[in-house]
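User: Hi! I have a protein structure encoded as tokens and I'd like to know what sequence might fold into it. I'm fairly new to this, so please keep things simple.
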């Protein structure tokens, strides 16, 4: 089953386009409508859809700049261009008459295309709305004969609306240009992973040039002297900042052609910024027409669109903010994918106590589904008389257990002078809750480039956690995982209060992967399982869980340590919770 994502609801032109493509290719397919263009990108990037469609140009209104920019920002692979004749109709409910229409719902691009028609209806107020499908659906739902929508004849059929006027566009041949895009990460044997086999290729790019005479002419000459046809050039608004001039440009040819390749190399050395969307199959022939659509492919009923990304412009956290990497951070720790791989369970004892204890635990959690091994050796204890950890001896034992089982290791770093030596032995440096705002320590781990698990402080707000992470990124280390481990509230029935709402908030506000530590949050063994389920369901990328061969004898945190059996049951149980954590997905 191939899934296609489009912006809008059934009957939107985007849906007609993707539907047509999927049927033409003979796929057994379904389509999902999502609220915004960026959601098409997040859905495709997260592999919740195999392919997505984005409108990139309208014959009258021009470039849909947001969609060009989205293809670049999410690193999507364009595969095919489709031109679609946008023959808008004015649609109303049964009993409605053109002369009675007082409100018209329409997409802003459609309003631009139907200027003369709308001017001929001076008594009707035009109300912009998300897409033509929504416009038609709202008219059908509202049941008001004075409200009409500009949409396709397909939307009229879907929502049972009557045509009050046909061919409303000022230019009867107007069309829109759409790009079909996929993720670069789809499986190599996926039918969409193969390049399309069309006869003509196009290439699209965005670049910017210094504000100086002859710059643009020099670039265009690079194409002209290689006989490359440029058929679209549009300037990108500067919005008052910078002095560079940005341009959207499309040309005939494929990046694999030596001539195109050398022209692009010349442009990129001339340009101050250069982004290649990629090469794709050009549309050949006249734009497709809506009446060619026979019957739409099934609409997914149960697939809920992801929430839109709120692109916070957090100037105090420019590196961790979601806007800096809308597609989400991903990285690899000793072969374990963080961010877009499977749900990552890190398990092990609170502290390393002996070779036997850590080996036995490592073997058990590894055979039951843990992907990484935890174990504290430098322990931040409330009382100076409590067990303080085995120190470097513990680190050596943890590293040995990691090597024996193939599990990457995680252990807490407490001081700056431990940082360098730990990076030689341990795969992930944990910054504990009590050190979340130890800014010099944050900077020291930031200078290493080594993966860091940053735990939320006992009384830290989400903003403070993000600002702490910014310290690490600002030193040049992007490999940070955040960890919600419970915060201190008035509630004392549990050790801390697991702030589950922090997970969707963090997923929206930052591109960094988010882990949940239910052990320290709830502090009671029997309540860990439901919180593991909740953490996975709410969008965490993974868990950090304490497991001990004999919890009653644990030197630290015995009340919350899981037995090997408990751990195996929990992992088993988690298999039934759907994944909702992949890169780019905000919920
Ligand atoms: C730990 O994970 O061992 C630990 C000490 O946790 P926290 O810093 O969250 O209290
Ligand atoms: Mn602990």
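Assistant: Happy to help. Inverse folding works backwards from shape to sequence: for each of the 587 positions I chose a residue that suits the local structure. Here it is:
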């Amino acid at each position: 089953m191939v899934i296609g994502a489009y912006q809008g609801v059934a009957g939107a032109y985007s849906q007609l386009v993707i539907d047509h493509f999927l049927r033409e290719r003979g796929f057994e397919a379904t389509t999902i409508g999502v609220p915004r263009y960026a959601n098409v990108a997040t859905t495709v990037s997260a592999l919740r859809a195999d392919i997505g469609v984005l409108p990139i140009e309208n014959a009258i209104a021009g470039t849909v700049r947001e969609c060009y920019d989205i293809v670049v920002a999410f690193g999507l692979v364009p595969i095919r261009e489709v031109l679609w004749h946008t023959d808008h109709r004015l649609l109303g409910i049964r009993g409605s008459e053109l002369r009675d229409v007082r409100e018209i719902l329409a997409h802003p691009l459609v309003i631009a295309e139907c200027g003369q028609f709308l001017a001929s209806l001076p008594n009707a107020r035009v109300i912009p709305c998300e897409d033509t499908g929504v416009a038609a659906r709202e008219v059908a739902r509202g049941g008001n004969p004075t409200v009409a929508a500009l949409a396709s004849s397909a939307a009229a059929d879907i929502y049972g609306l009557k045509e009050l006027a046909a061919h409303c566009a000022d230019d009867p041949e107007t069309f829109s240009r759409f790009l079909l895009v996929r993720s670069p990460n789809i499986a190599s044997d996926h039918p969409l992973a193969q390049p399309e086999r069309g006869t003509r290729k196009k290439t699209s790019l965005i670049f910017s040039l210094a504000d100086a005479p002859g710059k643009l002419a020099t670039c265009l000459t690079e194409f002209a002297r290689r006989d490359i046809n440029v058929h679209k050039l549009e300037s990108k608004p500067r919005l008052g900042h910078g002095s560079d001039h940005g341009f959207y440009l499309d040309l005939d040819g494929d990046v694999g052609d030596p001539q195109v390749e050398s022209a692009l190399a010349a442009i990129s050395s001339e340009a101050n910024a250069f982004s290649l969307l990629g090469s794709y199959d050009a549309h050949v022939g006249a734009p497709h027409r809506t009446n060619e659509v026979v019957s739409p492919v099934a609409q997914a009923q149960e697939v809920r669109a992801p929430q839109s990304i709120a692109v916070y412009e957090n100037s105090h956290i420019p590196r961790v903010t979601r806007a800096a990497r809308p597609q989400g951070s991903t990285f690899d720790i000793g072969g374990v994918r963080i961010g877009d791989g499977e749900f990552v369970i890190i398990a092990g004892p609170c502290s390393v106590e002996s070779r036997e204890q850590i080996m036995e635990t490592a073997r058990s959690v590894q055979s039951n589904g843990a992907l990484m091994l935890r174990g504290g050796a430098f322990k931040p204890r409330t009382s100076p008389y409590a067990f303080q950890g085995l120190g470097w001896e513990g680190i050596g034992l943890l590293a040995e257990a990691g090597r024996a089982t193939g599990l990457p290791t995680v252990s807490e770093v407490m001081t700056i002078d431990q940082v360098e030596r730990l990076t030689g032995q341990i795969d992930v440096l944990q910054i504990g809750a009590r050190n979340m705002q130890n800014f010099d320590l944050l900077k020291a781990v930031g200078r290493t480039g080594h993966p860091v698990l940053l735990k939320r402080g006992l009384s830290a707000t989400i903003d403070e956690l993000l600002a702490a992470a910014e310290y690490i990124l600002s030193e040049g280390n992007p490999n940070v995982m955040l960890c919600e481990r419970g915060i201190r509230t008035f509630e004392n029935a549990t050790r801390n209060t697991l702030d589950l709402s922090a997970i969707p908030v963090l997923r929206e506000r930052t591109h960094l992967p988010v882990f949940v530590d239910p052990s320290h949050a709830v502090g009671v063994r029997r309540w860990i399982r439901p919180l593991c389920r909740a953490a996975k369901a709410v969008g965490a990328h993974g868990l950090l869980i304490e497991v001990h061969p004999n919890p009653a004898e644990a030197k630290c945190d015995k009340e919350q340590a899981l037995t090997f059996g408990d751990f195996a049951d929990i992992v088993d149980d988690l298999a039934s919770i759907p994944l909702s954590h992949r890169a780019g997905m905000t919920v």
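A useful reference point when you look it over: The longest strand covers residues 77-85. Feel free to ask if any position seems puzzling.
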